Amino acid sequence: MSRNNEKNIKKHNDKLHKEQDKAKKAIVVRKEKLKEIVKKFNENNISKNN
Length: 50
Description:
With 50 residues, the protein is an all-alpha fold. It has one helix at 6-49. It has one domain. Helices cover 88% and strands 0% of the residues. Residues 1-24 are annotated as: Disordered.
């Protein structure tokens, strides 16, 4: 019997896609947090300058 049957290929691809989605989600979350930090930093600088 072959190890590369339909069931094993599907299982592998599902696992791979799940990991890829997880990585993409982490990047999006990181960018959102960075935006919030930059926004707070800019607000603090504006209040200090006035």
